[in-house]
Structures are given as C-alpha cells and as structure tokens.
Amino acid sequence: MSIRLFIAGAAAVVSILGTTEIADAQYRNQVRVDQRGVANEVGGRQNGYRNVMVVDQNGRRQWVTVYQDGTGNGTTAYQNGAYNGAIIDQNGRRNSAVVGQDGYNNYADTYQSGYRNESGVYQMGSNNTAVTTQSGSHNMSGVIQVGNGNNANVNQSGRGNVTLVIQGEH
Fold first, then answer.
1. pLDDT over 70 (residue 80)
2. Cα distances (Å, whole numbers) of residue 95 to 2, 39, 118
3. Over 80: is that where the pLDDT of 11 sits?
4. Which of 18, 91, 101, 120 has the most CB atoms at less than 10 Å from its CB?
5. pLDDT value at position 68?
6. Is 165 helix (H, G, I), strand (E, B) or coil?
7. E-strand spans in the chain?
C-alpha cells in the first residue's frame, strides 16, 4: 500500500512540475529571425513577458534593433534591399509596431510607451526617414513613404490620437 501511495505521490509531483513548465512557457518572450543575404544584423533586448519580436531580412547590410520592456508588446520588421535600418523601442503593455522597408538606405525609428499604442511604417524607395514617438494609450500612427528622400516625424501623447502620413511619388 505504501508503495502505491509513493508512486501516486510521485506522479502527482511530476504532473504539477510538468504543468508549471507549460505555464512558464506561456509567459516567455519570443523571437523569430529569418535572414537571407550578406551582413544583416539583428539586436536588442526583451524584458518582461509575452513580448514577441519577428524580423525578416533579405539583402545586404541591413540592421534592426528592438527593445521591448513590459507585457504583450509585439514587433514585426521586414527589410528587403540594402543599408536599411530600424530601431523599435516599446515600453508598457500591448503596444504593437510594424516596420517594412523595401529599397536602399531607409531609416525608421519608432518609440512607444504606455498601453495599446500602434505604429506602422512602410518605406519603399531610397533615403527615406520616419521617426514616430507615441506615449499614452490607444494612439495609432501610420507612415507610408514611396519614392526617394521623404522625411516624416510624428509625435503623439495622450489618448486616442490618430495620425496618417503619406509621402511620395504618385
């Protein structure tokens, strides 16, 4: 009888430990990087839990740096071409940033702090620059740059602000 109790107790402990490992995995930060080409770089830091970073690079000498601090922040960066660069810095909870760069020597810098802010930047062409800064909650910004040499600077604070910037050749 005591052997059966020991085995049942050991099985319960193993079951609890297994459940704890599964629960811990749900809170981990996630990173996915897909690189094709030459001398592409990805760096950064995630602090907190349930933050997700996805980077896809195709080309040469492109770089992405992501800093996420908090809970449930998400970043997606796509680069195709050469010499494109992006910095994404998010602090808080459930912020989301997407950067897409297709071309040559484009630069995007996104900073968000607070709760449920969303930012999207798409650059197609060469020598485009987009800087977006948002603090507060429920802010949304979008920047679309098509062509060459466009510059955009978006700065929002507070709650519920929406900005859309479209620049370039038609």
1. yes
2. 54, 29, 6
3. no
4. 101
5. 97
6. strand
7. 30-38, 41-49, 52-60, 63-71, 74-82, 85-93, 96-104, 107-115, 118-126, 129-137, 140-148, 151-159, 162-168
